[in-house]
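Incident log, entry 3
Record: Ribbon-helix-helix protein CopG domain-containing protein (69 residues)
Problem: checksum mismatch between cached and fresh output.
Input:
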Amino acid sequence: MSEKITKYERYRRNREAQGETQVQIWLRHDLCKKVDALVRAGNYKNRSELFAKVMAEFVEGRNLEGQQM
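Fresh output:
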């Protein structure tokens, strides 16, 4: 009997296979509107891409400055 996998589960497994982990965050409404405006302007494909890039730059920048994580 084969396992039936939903479209969402297939997407999730693919992302995990790429070494990614899903996280959830809460944002102030005004900040979320600004994030959405950046996405709509074509700067990012979606919120996930925006947050992944911003967080990587923030965390990697701190490592380069010699700050302990």
